[in-house]
């Protein structure tokens, strides 16, 4: 679907300055669409959504393709796409609203709500929700990040034990990761008895009229799947379950709703007061980051604050298994841009190139850009290189000598020795069983496929992540299996 009401139609009635801005916007739109449509024709991704907005005007919403490579439905402006870490900006606005409402003041400390949480060298009574949402915790807890992103909905009551078992101070004033947003959401639910999913509906999505945006994929009959590009065709991954849609990367949003979101952040009239949006966009901590035409010097609530061509730019991207996304807002210009892909076919680089094209042309209508043919050719070459390197990688994994040539063909009786429940204080529970003559496993409920390699060693692949990992069992002197190490983490058998 393509719905476009161009800026050029308003030129005659506009002031000279406004007319010039309208013309720059129209040029930027044209430059992006010409290049993206050329790349679309290569068919390297099943679907994508492009959104460009200008305050006071109808949005440009350009969606093509399908929700999945095979068996999907045609994507349109109401099709939800997963946006991964772009979620943080939405949660950031929610947090500022809840601070304004007195529901969860940003100066509330983690220690107030989780007094039993302990990490050596960290004072939880001094760490606030503001610190959590702006990545200023000073410690990390990888197990919590991994579980919430890939395996399960971690009960709020378990957060302190997981942090206590896995947390370690890193001495960094600013470290971007998911942990702060996970802790904020857990604290919010602990304080109010209401999940972040319900709160964000109430204070962000409903006021902005975002009816096809949610932290629950189950809210929709069809959500765009994700795809890992490969030589022999894309590997399709089902949408995330509700359990792993977390506050640092757990939203699906349609292109039409993305337009509403961008317009609100670009200063268009909305049900959320402008001063609240301004607070969510205000820098909270200095950072140093640069790429392309942008130099980023601050982090707000889920936004990187940057400068490009003399303009203030708010931006954030998202990436997960088989998908990439990117968005930006020029608040002083009243302009916004977003692009969402349901494939990893070099779409991270492509989304950045489209964003940079938009910025460059908007800032300077005479900017030199690669020709459309050159742009298309370069993209095709990058995708082909990715496919070849990925194939080489997987071939190398299967040929690795650690697997012992895949000579072991265990009987069902031999496999039964591994059946049981294994636990780790931070990583959770792995249940190993026999199904249809093969070893199967579930990590915190998420399925793991296994392939026998040699005695006590299996190659294992989590359903949400294509990376093959070692699953090595260990035995006591009497021959009984007592533990398993998966992806470098040791789980102890408990039954």
TrEMBL record:
Write the protein's name.
Serine hydrolase
User: GO molecular function: any one?
Assistant: hydrolase activity
Q: Give the UniProt keywords, A-Z.
A: Hydrolase, Signal
Q: What top-level branch of life does the organism fall under? A: Bacteria
The cross-references to Pfam families, in alphabetical order and at most eight, read: Beta-lactamase, DUF3471
Which residues, by range, are in coiled-coil regions?
Answer: none
Q: Which InterPro entries match?
A: AmpC-like (IPR050491), Beta-lactam-related (IPR001466), Peptidase_S12_Pab87-rel_C (IPR021860)
Domain (Beta-lactamase-related): give its ranges. 39-345
Sequence ranges assigned to domain Peptidase S12 Pab87-related C-terminal in this UniProt record: 410-486
Q: Which residues form the signal peptide?
A: 1-19
């Amino acid at each position: 679907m393509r719905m476009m009401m161009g800026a050029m139609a308003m030129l005659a009635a506009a002031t000279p300055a406004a007319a010039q801005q309208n013309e720059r916007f129209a040029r930027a739109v044209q430059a992006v669409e010409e290049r993206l449509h050329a790349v679309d024709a290569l068919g390297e991704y099943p679907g994508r959504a492009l959104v460009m907005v200008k305050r006071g005007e109808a949005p440009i919403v350009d969606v093509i393709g399908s929700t999945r490579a095979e068996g999907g439905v045609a994507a349109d402006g109401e099709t939800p796409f997963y946006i991964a870490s772009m979620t943080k900006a939405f949660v950031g606005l929610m947090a500022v609203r809840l601070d304004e409402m007195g529901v969860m003041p940003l100066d509330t400390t983690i220690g107030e709500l989780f007094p039993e949480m302990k990490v050596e060298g960290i004072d939880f009574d001094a760490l606030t929700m503001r610190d959590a949402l702006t990545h200023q915790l000073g410690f990390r807890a990888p197990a919590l990040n991994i579980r919430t992103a890939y395996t399960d909905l971690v009960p709020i009551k378990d957060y302190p034990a997981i942090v206590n078992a896995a947390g370690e101070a890193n001495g960094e004033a600013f470290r971007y990761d998911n942990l702060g947003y996970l802790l904020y959401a857990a604290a919010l639910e602990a304080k109010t008895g209401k999940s972040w999913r319900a709160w964000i509906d109430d204070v962000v999505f409903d006021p902005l009229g975002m009816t096809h945006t949610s932290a629950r994929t189950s809210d929709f009959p069809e959500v765009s799947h994700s795809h890992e590009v490969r030589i022999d065709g894309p590997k399709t991954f089902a949408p995330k379950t509700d359990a792993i849609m977390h506050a640092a990367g757990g939203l699906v949003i349609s292109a039409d709703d993305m337009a509403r979101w961008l317009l609100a952040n670009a200063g268009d009239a909305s049900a959320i007061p402008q001063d609240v949006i301004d607070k969510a966009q205000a820098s909270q901590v200095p950072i140093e980051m640069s790429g392309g035409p942008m130099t980023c010097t601050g982090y707000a609530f889920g936004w990187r604050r940057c400068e490009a061509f003399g303009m203030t730019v708010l931006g954030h991207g998202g990436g997960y298994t088989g998908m990439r996304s990117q968005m930006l807002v020029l608040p002083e210009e009243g302009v916004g841009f977003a692009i969402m892909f349901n494939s990893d076919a070099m779409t991270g680089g492509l989304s950045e190139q489209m964003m940079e094209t938009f910025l460059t042309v908007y800032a300077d209508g005479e900017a030199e850009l690669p020709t459309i043919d050159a742009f298309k050719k370069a993209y095709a070459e990058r995708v082909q290189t990715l496919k070849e390197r990925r194939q080489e990688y997987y071939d190398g994994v299967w040929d690795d000598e650690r697997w012992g040539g895949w000579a072991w063909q265990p009987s069902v009786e031999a496999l039964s020795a591994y059946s049981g429940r294994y636990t780790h204080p931070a990583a959770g529970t792995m249940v190993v069983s026999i199904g249809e003559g093969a070893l199967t496993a579930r990590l915190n409920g998420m399925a793991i496929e296994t392939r026998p390699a040699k005695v006590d060693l299996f190659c294992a692949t989590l359903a949400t992540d294509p990376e093959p990992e070692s699953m090595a069992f260990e035995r006591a002197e009497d021959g009984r299996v007592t533990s398993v190490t998966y992806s470098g983490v040791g789980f102890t058998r408990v039954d």
